[in-house]
Amino acid sequence: MSAGAPHIGLNLVFLVPGETGGMEVAARELIPALLDAAPPGMRFTAFVNREAAAGDGPWGELLPAVTVPVRSRARAQWVLGEQTLLPVLAARARVDLVHSLASTAPLWGPFRRVVTVHDLIYARFPDAHPGLRDKGMRLLVPAAARRSRRVIADSESTRADLVELLGIPGERIDVVPLGFGTVQREQPAPPAQVRERFALGDQAAAEPLRQAPPQEPRHADRRPGADPGRAPAAARAARLCHLARAGAAGARRRRGRGGRRALPRVDAR
Known about the structure:
Mean pLDDT: 82
Distance between the termini: 30 Å
CATH architecture: 3-Layer(aba) Sandwich
CATH topology: Rossmann fold
CATH class: Alpha Beta
Strand order of the largest sheet: 3-2-1-4-5-6-7
Shape: globular
Radius of gyration: 20 Å
Structural class: alpha/beta
């Protein structure tokens, strides 16, 4: 493999189709944008759980997918797959960089890491994630951010929390906000249908928000020749492709120095 054609792994072990909410939407939008932004020769492989492997999605349709043999409806299975099985499968696929899209990431493996951290609600508002989940996030999210070469945050607020609460250097964090350029997948229900469904009759209802005039996104790409209206998925994709090219050679050098080690068997059945 040449230095200009790295192999990128997408960590989608968290994603249960139709159940994962906004993180699923972000992943579904990012994958086609990545493929559009990628330079010739760059390869992608998605690592998905059994639920996603059996469902519909751009993984497996637009790019190859490897099934991590866990069912991630159970959070313990998600962690097991991400921390023990994904590193083996990613190493076997010889990926150069793994991009984890759900705030946690594999902590070992012969590849570089980029992680998207959506928020630090577990740290700012501990009551939101009580019990075992809180303890798991307090361990895994900081470790993922510290082990990653770059951290992608959805907002300046999350970036500030990463710096203040986790001590991540600000220069390692890229802010790419969500929302701008989002493709509308559903149409709103007609007002008459909503009134009938909720038995509103003729009583006054809240006026829907008016769409603001188009403005340049706060974090638009202002480099010469760049498109200032680039959608977040495209901006995130372009940034990831840049990081992948920069990191691929280093990852391969490390593999060369360490030689090929026997990897444990992972049964994908």
